[in-house]
């Protein structure tokens, strides 16, 4: 059976001292810690390739700066170009640009955004996020199998929420969830092992930079 693997990687820590829910806003580059995460993520993939004999053949990133900066060291190590795919961009969010989200939730003018947490009403529907990322994954899966053979791999650097709902969908679980329960830390790797003809991929989750997470600022949904 032919297998291709697409690794969904969350970007590194962004420079965000005001703790803004930055969403799709431009200009949020990596913090000093975020750059370290990106470098060590690249080291992890290179070391993994040396151990398994299989390096990523295709690199893809969200158009947002923090994703592009996260994948750059890996692209340099592997001497591969980076494709930009709008389908793996961060989720749209009605609270984008705001800080102190707990305080924003208490403001009556924002209550209309909270009418339906299952969709959710404050932003892009979970199902739409999962569908667009899955489409990107499926296209890469087919290209890997067609052009690079059995065991070929690709890396997509994207964002927490789209990665998480894509994983939930791949595992056949409901998409509604508590943001605090997401297993998708900064520069984590959610690997979708796609067997040709299989209905669902096999999911594997790893945290190459677990040792750096204690010092990171990570906002749910950002």
UniProtKB/TrEMBL annotation:
UniProt keyword Hydrolase present: yes
Gene3D superfamilies recorded: Phosphoglycerate mutase-like (3.40.50.1240)
Domain of life where this protein originates: Bacteria
Keyword Disulfide bond belongs to the record: no
Gene Ontology MF terms: hydrolase activity
EC number: 3.1.3.-
Keyword annotations: Hydrolase
Pfam families in UniProt: His_Phos_1
The protein's enzyme class: hydrolase
Cross-referenced InterPro entries: His_Pase_superF_clade-1, His_PPase_superfam, PGM_Phosphatase
Signal peptide range: none
UniProt protein name: Histidine phosphatase family protein
């Amino acid at each position: 059976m032919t297998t291709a693997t697409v690794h969904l990687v969350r970007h590194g820590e962004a420079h965000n001292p005001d703790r803004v829910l930055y969403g799709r806003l431009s200009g949020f580059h990596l913090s000093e810690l975020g750059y370290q995460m990106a470098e060590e993520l690249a080291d992890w993939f290179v070391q993994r390739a040396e151990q398994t004999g299989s390096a990523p053949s295709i690199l893809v990133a969200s158009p947002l700066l923090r994703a592009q900066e996260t994948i750059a060291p890996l692209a340099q190590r592997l001497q591969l170009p980076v494709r930009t795919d709008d389908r793996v961009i961060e989720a749209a969010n009605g609270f984008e640009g705001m800080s102190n989200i707990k305080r924003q939730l208490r403001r009556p003018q924002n209550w209309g955004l909270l009418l339906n947490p299952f969709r959710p009403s404050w932003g892009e529907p979970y199902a739409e996020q999962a569908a667009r990322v899955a489409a990107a994954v499926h296209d890469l899966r087919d290209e890997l199998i067609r052009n690079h053979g059995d065991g070929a791999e690709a890396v997509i650097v994207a964002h927490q929420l789209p990665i998480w709902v894509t994983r939930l969908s791949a595992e056949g679980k409901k998409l509604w969830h508590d943001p605090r329960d997401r297993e998708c830390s900064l520069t984590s790797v959610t690997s979708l092992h796609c067997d040709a003809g299989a209905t669902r991929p096999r999911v594997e989750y790893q945290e190459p930079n677990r040792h750096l997470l204690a010092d990171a600022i990570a906002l749910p949904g950002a």
